[in-house]
Structures are given as structure tokens and as C-alpha cells.
Amino acid sequence: ASMRYQMRSIDRIPVRALAGAGNNNGKDNIITGKGGFSNPLPAPSGKRVDEIVEFPTILRFKIVGVRDDTFVDDMEKICSKSTGRPVTAVKFRDNGKYRSVTFDLVLDAPDVFYRVYKDVGEDSRVKFMI
Asked: What's this model's pTM, rounded to 2 decimal places?
């Protein structure tokens, strides 16, 4: 089954958004295997991000880690420093001893994508990131 995309522009940066956001048409998330979609990217193919994403772009990142009072602020600072831009669309949710935080990040180049994963992964509270 093919995924349908629509194009929109925020601050003249192309953004790929899944058509009908919020409705997964009964399909599982390509990353977690659970209902709904996260980043609207094709299924993992072994390709580098620069082969499947046009830069600059805005991508949504979800970080899950140990729940504490500074986790959201610290992740925001790390992501902002990694991208060199302010973080947009911050939201978080608590579930027991874990906290998930979701950011929309502006990425100017593929190396910024990999830098975000590297920098966030260096925090010992982080359990996973999608």
C-alpha cells in the first residue's frame, strides 16, 4: 500500500505531512508497529536520510526518557543547540516513571539530523528516540 503525502510550507521550508493526519487508515506505525504514524517517511530501506528527505525540512522527533523535572527543558536545549534553531511545537506526556517529549525540528542538512540523534543519545536519561 502506498502512503499519500501532501506538501505544505512553513516559513518557506517544505514539509512532508501525511495526508489525513490523525487517521492511520488501520495501518500500523512504520517505526513502532502500533497504530498511527510518527514521521511521514517511507518504511526503513537502509538508505541514508539525505536519499529520502529533501532539506531543509521540518521533522517530528519523539524522545522517551526517565521522568524528572528537567527532562523536557534539557531535551529542548539539546535539540536547539544541535539544530542551531529554536525548537517548535513542544509537547510532553507522562506515563509512570517515563516522560515522552515531542518536538518539531527544523533541519537544514542531513548532518543536522544525525547530530540530533547523537547529542540526544548522550543523555543517560534517554531510553529511545523516534
From this structure: 0.65
